[in-house]
Amino acid sequence: MFTLYLGSSFSERLNRKVVRSCLDVIVTATAMVMAGTGNLELLRRLRKLHHRLAPDISYGNHMATQMSLGLLFLGGGEYTLSTSNKAIAALFCAFYPQFPDTVGDNRSHLQAFRHLWVLAVDARCLVTRDVENNDLCAVPITVTIYTDAKQDSINQSHESILDIDMTTPCLLPEFHLIKKIKSQTPRYWPVCLDFEINKKHFESLQVTGNVLFVKRRIGHLTYFQVW
Fold first, then answer.
1. Residue 146 contacts residue 121 (beta carbons within 8 Å)
2. Sequence spans of domains, the chain
3. What is the pLDDT of residues 182-223, one digit of tens each?
4. Rg, C-alpha atoms of the chain
5. Which of 148, 183, 212, 221 could disulfide-pair with 191, CB 3.0 to 4.6 Å?
6. Are 91 and 84 in contact (CB under 8 A)?
7. pLDDT by residue (tens digit) across 48-89?
8. 55: preceding bond cis by omega (within 30 degrees)
9. What is the model's pTM?
């Protein structure tokens, strides 16, 4: 963290303002990367910035911190940001790095554009529920993704894939990258959603609101009980 002191000369005050502006850009960019994850390390740093009180702390400095906190816990951890062309354009308008000095400062950027981040929000939180009692449960899964996929490409051929191990509830990669989602654990019966072979698997996941139903094997405890 930076420790900045009030300067006496114009050059010192200017340098301090530039450093604060750079810090605002860094925290907002980091929050975009960690959007929806609720990362504790980043939260600790944002809390320090949130409690800054000094004559030279502007309204825009607090705005950058508050927007970063909102991104970090986007939708209570159920949403994250998309990387589509429309989403990138909306994020550029919303997080334009020239933050205002006062509440009514619209000289460099119209503050109403700050709300356009909502156009980039994407619901990608996968939740597993026990099919018997509809209770939430934690299940280890393997997500196979294409590493060479492009969102706007049509009839693209995929050659490179990557397996990512996760535990639900979790934020999935973008759906156009996912080849299949597989649950293979000794405590639950295996489930496999193969988006490449059967498109209805993806449609069913969308209908249920990204909820994957699993069935626990007889004689096994849930992972919550084991942990």
1. no
2. 10-122, 124-226
3. 998 899 999 999 988 888 888 888 888 899 999 999 988 888
4. 22
5. 183
6. no
7. 998 888 888 899 999 999 999 999 999 999 999 999 999 999
8. no
9. 0.82
